């Protein structure tokens, strides 16, 4: 199983939208996919049609009470896509785990269970670099960073990359960065165009060729409880996420790793 964390400590940059739609695209290509919601806000869970009242076991149980992942996942209406949902109690997990020696490794250990049966899992992180994101980065093989094309984008990115280095040194020497996806690109806005050019000249290959446009269908889909890829598979946002998923697959060291 390939484990991909989707992280950026800034809120509202497109992490959850990316997690939901890339997960859906991967599932559509036939990969058994697990979406892990690690944000107490639970937007990824809602976005794949699992309302708060439908969630029983959750990522909180896995992290805090060490319940096996297999006992906490739910299927979704999307064929090939399962969900480990988040519940609001996850917001207390960082405090509850503060004295646990293995607090950074809880998710890593949980995902090493041999019988999970997924080809890939995507971990949607909360907007901070706290213990939940640390668990995701420690558990992951690689990191996908959604980056909004705006003025302070690069500053936030350097902080994230410093965190990645620390995680590599202390917790997970094998953590890679599969790429940075530019999100909410608006070609009519000079600033986003400029930021996109700057970021590409600065970070080169690390940036995915696919850029995600600002697209209203992407923001409408969650209120219908379906990924944009299903809500309107032909819209510009959906097509961009399909292209991003294809690019992601070509960047993975092995096309498909047996579960
Ligand atoms: P994060 O998880 O980083 O906080 P979200 O994915 O939840 O970010 O996105 C923040 C808001 O912006 C949401 O309301 C979402 O629907 C919307 N959004 C995300 N990506 C796009 C896009 N490319 N175009 C338009 N709206 C978007
Ligand atoms: Mg989010």
Automatic annotation (TrEMBL):
Organism: Novosphingobium silvae
CDD domains in the cross-refs: ParAB_family
Protein role: Involved in chromosome partition. Localize to both poles of the predivisional cell following completion of DNA replication.
Protein name, UniProt field: Chromosome partitioning protein ParA
Residue intervals of the AAA domain: 4-176
Pfam families: AAA_31 (PF13614)
Gene3D superfamilies: P-loop containing nucleotide triphosphate hydrolases (3.40.50.300)
UniProt xrefs under PANTHER family: P-LOOP CONTAINING NUCLEOSIDE TRIPHOSPHATE HYDROLASE, PARA FAMILY PROTEIN CT_582
Top-level taxonomic group: Bacteria
């Amino acid at each position: 199983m390939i484990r991909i964390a989707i992280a950026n400590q800034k809120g509202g940059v497109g992490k959850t939208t990316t997690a939901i739609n890339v997960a859906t695209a991967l599932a559509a290509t036939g990969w058994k996919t697990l979406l892990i919601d690690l944000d107490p806000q639970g937007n990824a869970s809602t976005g794949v049609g699992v309302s708060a009242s439908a969630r029983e076991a959750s990522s909180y149980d896995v992290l805090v009470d060490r319940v096996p992942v297999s006992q906490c996942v739910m299927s979704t209406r999307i064929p090939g896509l399962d969900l480990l949902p988040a519940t609001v109690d996850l917001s207390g997990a960082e405090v509850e785990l503060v004295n646990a020696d293995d607090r950074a490794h809880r998710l890593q250990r949980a995902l090493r269970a041999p019988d999970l049966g997924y080809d890939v899992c995507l971990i949607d992180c909360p907007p901070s670099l706290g213990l939940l994101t640390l668990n995701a980065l420690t558990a992951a093989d690689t990191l996908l960073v959604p980056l909004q094309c705006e003025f302070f984008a690069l500053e936030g990115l350097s902080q994230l990359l410093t965190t990645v280095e620390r995680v590599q040194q202390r917790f997970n020497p094998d953590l890679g960065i599969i790429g940075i996806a530019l999100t909410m690109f608006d070609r009519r806005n000079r600033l986003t165009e400029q930021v996109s050019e700057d970021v590409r000249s600065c970070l080169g290959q690390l940036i995915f060729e696919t850029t995600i446009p600002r697209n209203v269908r992407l923001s409408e889909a969650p209120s219908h409880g379906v990924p944009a890829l299903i809500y309107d598979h032909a819209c510009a946002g959906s097509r961009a996420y399909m292209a991003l998923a294809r690019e992601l697959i070509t960047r993975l060291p092995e096309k498909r790793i047996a579960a």
